[in-house]
Amino acid sequence: MNPYLFGYLAAAIIGLSAVALTRKNPVHAVLLMIVMFFHLAVLYLGLGAEFLAAVQIIVYAGAIMVLFLFVVMVLNIKEEIESERFTGGWPLGVSLAAGLFLLLIILTGKVLPGQQGVYTAQVIASQTDTKALGVLLYTQYIFPFELASLILLVAVVGAIVLAKKKLR
Amino acid sequence: MNPVPLQWYIWLSLALFMTGMFGFLTRRSIILMFLSIEVMLNAVNLSLVAFSHFLNDLRGQVLVLFVVTVAASEAAIGLAILVALFRNRATAQIDKITEMKG
Fold first, then answer.
1. Residues on chain A touching B90 (C-beta within 8 angstroms)
2. Is residue B100 included in any domain, yes or no?
3. Which residues of A are less than 8 Å from B83 in CB distance?
4. How many domains does one find in chain B?
5. Least C-beta-crowded within 10 Å: which of A22, B43, B49, B71?
6. Chain B closest CA to A2's CA: distance in Å?
7. pLDDT per residue as tens digits for the range A13-72
8. What pTM does this model have?
9. Mutate which of A2, A25, A42, A162 to disrupt the B interface (most B C-beta within 10 Å)?
C-alpha cells in the first residue's frame, strides 16, 4: 500500500471516529461511523483481505449501523441532544486512554517477526482470498463456525425476548 | 512487499482502540457507549488482518470473521436491552440508571 494513501486513511479513520464519538446527536455519530467503516474497508483491501473488506461494508456499515439507526430513531433523542455529553469523570477517562496508548506504543516499538505461515501472497492470488478463507473455514475451523451460528441463533432469540412488550 | 511496515498498522489499531476506550469511559449516552465498543472491536480486527498479511497466515482473517459475528449478536442484544430499558425508564443516560447499586 502507498504510504501516502495509508497516511490519509489513518488520519481519516482516527479523525472520523474521534469526531463521531464526541457528537451530541447519535444519528450524526452513526453516519460518521459508516464513513469510517468504508475507510477501514479500503485498508483491508490494501492488506489483501478482499472478502473481509466486503464483510466490513455489508455487515458493519450495512447491517449493524442500520440497526443502530433504527434504535436511535425509536428512542427519544431530544433528551440526548439537550443533556451533557460527558460524565463527570471524563478527565480520568481521557488520561487513562492516553496513558495506556503511550505505554503500548513504547511496548510495541520493537516487535519480533513471528513464525511465517504458508499463505503467501502468491498462494492466495492463485486461488483468490475468498476461496482460501472458505476452505480453511469449512475444514479446519468447522466447529467454531457452527458455534458462531449457534451464537447468532441465541442472539436472535434473546433480542426478540428482551424487546417484546409482554411475555405470555 | 508492502512499503508500509507492520508497526504502523499496530499503532493505527492502538490509536483507534484508545479512541473507542475514551468514548466508552467518558460518554453519558448508552448508544454512544455501544458505538465505542464497535470502534474497539474494529481496532482489534485491523490488527488481526495486519498480522495475517505480514505473517502469511490466514488464521487472523478467520478470527476476524468470528469477531464480526460476535459483534453483530452483541449489537442486537445490547440494543434490545436498550429498548427494554427505555420502555421502563425513558432515559438513555448512564448516570440516571442506578437501580442496581452495587
1. 76
2. no
3. 71, 74-75, 162-163
4. 1
5. A22
6. 7
7. 999 999 999 888 889 999 999 999 999 999 999 988 899 999 999 999 999 999 999 888
8. 0.89
9. A162
Check CB contact under 8 Å for B38 and A47: no
Amino acid at B61: Q
Mutation site for B-interface testing, chosen from A70, A74, A75 by largest number of B Cβ within 10 Å: A75
Q: Are B78 and B86 in contact (CB under 8 A)?
A: no
Contact A68, B79 (CB under 8 A): yes
Contact indicator for B29, B92 with CB cutoff of 8 Å: yes
Residue B71 counted as domain residue: yes
Contact A111 B18 (CB under 8 A): no
Does a structural domain hold residue B48? yes
- The reply to whether residue A49 touches residue B61, judged by beta carbons under 8 angstroms, is yes
- Other Cβ atoms less than 10 A from the Cβ of A130: the count is 14
Can you point out the beta strands (E) in chain A? Answer: none
Give the integer Cα–Cα distance in Å for A122 and A112.
Answer: 24
Instruction: Give the residues of chain B that fall short of pLDDT 70.
Output: 1-2, 92, 101-102
> Which residues span the domain enclosing B43?
31-95
Query: CATH no. for residue B87?
Result: 1.10.287.3510
Q: CB of B36 within 8 A of CB of B24?
A: yes
What are the tens digits of pLDDT across the range A97-147? 888 888 888 888 777 777 787 777 777 778 888 898 999 999 999 999 999
Do residues B78 and B93 make contact, with C-beta atoms less than 8 angstroms apart?
no
CB hemisphere CA count around B35 (13 angstroms): 38
